[in-house]
Write a structure and sequence with these properties.
- There is one protein chain.
- This protein has 149 residues and is α+β, with helices and mostly antiparallel strands.
- The chain has one domain (2-115).
- It is built from three helices and seven strands.
- It has helices at residues 2-24, 101-115, 140-148, and strands at residues 28-36, 39-46, 49-56, 62-67, 82-83, 86-90, 95-100.
- The radius of gyration is 30 Å and the shape is elongated.
- The protein starts with a helix and ends with a helix.
- The model has no long low-confidence stretch (mean pLDDT 76).
């Protein structure tokens, strides 16, 4: 039974993390940046999206969280490359890919019914055998009483 519930919580975890991240990203921006081979790669969350970006070289690791001035679920700039939260921006030195949290939550939620352990009716014939009482006697005791008489 514990294994069943552990499996269920593991299946719900990505869905709940996406919902939490979606709500959190409206008030905060968070990022993790790492530089290697002359480029820096940044994974950030904000505006209701997960954004993967590349920049020119920046020194080492950079991790941060910043509170936004207002609750926002769309970027401030009116970029024509955003559609339903999906985004793509290519500048001379940077590239940004954005995936909205609503898509990640929906994608992980769609698979839940298929991966969730099924609890249906038990198949017949797996329990203890049951004998139907005959119409002559009312049960086993009466049959024994007749045999002694």
């Amino acid at each position: 039974m514990t294994r069943r519930w552990l499996l269920r919580y593991c299946l719900l975890l990505p869905y709940l993390l996406c919902l939490f991240g979606w709500g959190w990203s409206g008030w905060y921006r968070g990022w993790v940046r790492y530089s290697f081979a002359g480029r820096a790669v940044t994974l950030q969350t904000g505006y209701g999206m997960v954004i993967l970006s590349t920049y020119p070289k920046a020194p080492g690791w950079n991790v941060g969280v910043q509170r936004t001035a207002i609750v926002a679920f769309l970027p401030d700039d009116e970029d024509p490359h955003y559609l339903l939260g999906f985004g793509f921006i290519q500048a001379p030195e940077t590239v940004h890919y954005a995936i909205p949290y609503w898509f990640l939550a929906a994608a992980s939620g769609i698979f839940l019914p298929f991966l969730w352990p099924k609890r249906g009716k038990k198949t017949r014939g797996r329990a203890f055998p049951v004998e139907v009482a005959s119409e002559k006697g009312s049960g086993i005791d009466e049959g024994r009483a007749n045999s002694h008489a």
